[in-house]
Amino acid sequence: MGDVVADDAVADAEPVEEIQHSGAIAARLAELRAGKVEIHLKAIGSTPTLRKPRFTIDGSKSFGELTRFIRGALKVESLHVYCCDAFEPSPDERIADLRHCFGVGPKLNISYSSEPAFS
């Protein structure tokens, strides 16, 4: 019977996403993500380079949006995009969050490759 009560409690619970982004937390996240982040791009291996490897992007944009922008600029379907030559962030990570954790001053170093570059 204890399992039934637990199942009922789970069914009535709010989704975690809504709880995490309500009220003061949402306001603070918006404040931290406000403004522009300077992106420094670097091609790895034989991947073509962009004509403009440095630009700014809204900090509230997702990493997936940045990845789509780079793929579109290079006119490629598949691309591996890395933060700090170390890892591929989740597409839903926010650019400002990555800069706060892994950036150097106001900039975030991003590298990209047509093939996996790091394991």
UniProtKB/TrEMBL annotation:
Cross-referenced Pfam families: APG12 (PF04110)
One of the GO biological process terms: autophagosome assembly
Domain of life: Eukaryota
An example molecular function term from Gene Ontology annotations: Atg8-family ligase activity
Keywords: Autophagy, Isopeptide bond, Ubl conjugation pathway
InterPro entries the UniProt entry points to: Atg12, Ubiquitin-like_domsf
Keyword Heme: no
SUPFAM superfamilies: Ubiquitin-like
Gene Ontology CC terms, in alphabetical order: Atg12-Atg5-Atg16 complex; autophagosome membrane; phagophore assembly site membrane
Subunit structure: Forms a conjugate with ATG5.
Homology family: Belongs to the ATG12 family.
Protein name: Ubiquitin-like protein ATG12
